[in-house]
Design goal:
By secondary structure, this protein is an alpha/beta fold. It folds into two domains: 116 residues, 3-Layer(aba) Sandwich (Rossmann fold); 134 residues, Rossmann fold, CATH 3.40.50.12370. Helix content is 35%, strand content 24%. The chain contains nine helices and eleven strands. Strands 1, 2, 3, 4, 5, 6, 7, 8, 9, 10 and 11 form an eleven-stranded mixed beta sheet that branches. The two termini are 22 Å apart. About 13% of the residues have low confidence.
């Protein structure tokens, strides 16, 4: 478990979320501060480590100073990590710089799931996990969301975005009884298999036809976190976040997990 810190209150929230996730998974926590001056990094890292030892005395914890930009450093550190965690200020005075700073670049390049801490929900709450599906390629994000709901012992709510996809006479219709040319909801991968595998959790599945990004945004008010996919095509290719993913990273009321898919 990797978390980026910088001495800010927002980074402290990210640190607490990362610690809770590490405890929940039985993983060690690695705290990283990317800054040009090593002397500046030492007190920040020492304070973060002391907070973890005080609150989670049994949690294995290490720290590291990294030269260079935060996105590049955390991308390196994310290799082999179950999860990389960062905080964000979201909208406000950093409106144009949210993605330009760390979040979007990490979503493009991390080697595994990225948790962007947003909103004001407590990390130990019993709220539901929310999954936003907007592509046929979101199977990895779906699997992550089912696993997360099982870890937390909470319900999973699945929202399927509606797209103007049309079937063709040459291809079998993905929905029983549908006619060629009829609009269909995506994704087409088999969520039922995940339901069978994680039969101990409650699942609610809804298809949203009108303004799915806004519907998903409203649903984040009651969620512990929301999971979306970022789609990478080929080695080194940056992911494509759909409109739902972009909306959530800007405005979600709860933390956002971005799961890279290939």
């Amino acid at each position: 478990m990797v978390v980026g810190v910088d001495g800010s209150l927002i980074a402290v929230r990210a640190l607490d979320w990362a610690a809770e996730e590490a405890v929940r998974r039985g993983a060690a926590l690695h705290i990283v501060y990317a800054v040009p001056d090593r002397d500046e990094a030492q007190p920040v890292l020492a304070s973060a480590e002391a907070r973890i030892h005080e609150r989670y005395p049994e949690l294995p914890c290490t720290t590291a100073f990294a030269e260079g930009g935060a996105a590049r450093a955390l991308t390196r550190e994310s290799e082999g990590a179950d999860l990389t965690v960062v905080g964000t200020r979201g909208l406000g005075r950093l409106t144009g710089a949210l993605f330009g700073s760390v979040s979007l670049r990490l979503a493009a390049h991390t080697h595994g799931p990225l948790l962007v801490v947003r909103g004001d929900h407590r990390c130990d709450g019993g709220r539901e996990v929310l999954l936003g599906l907007e592509s046929d390629s979101d199977a990895d994000a779906a699997a992550y969301a089912f696993q997360e709901a099982e870890r937390r012992g909470v319900r999973l709510r699945v929202l399927h975005a509606w797209t103007h996809r049309h079937t063709t006479p040459e291809l079998p219709s993905p929905v029983t009884g549908a006619n060629p040319g009829q609009e269909q909801a995506v994704p087409h991968f088999d969520v039922a298999e995940l339901r069978r595998r994680y039969d101990g959790i409650g699942v609610e599945s809804l298809t949203v036809r009108t303004d799915p990004a806004q519907a998903m945004l409203e649903a984040t008010r009651e969620a512990a976190l929301v999971v979306v996919g970022a789609h990478r095509h080929g080695h080194g290719t940056e992911p494509r976040l759909g409109p739902i993913g972009h909306t959530l990273l800007h405005r979600s009321h709860c933390p956002v997990v971005v799961v890279p898919t290939r």
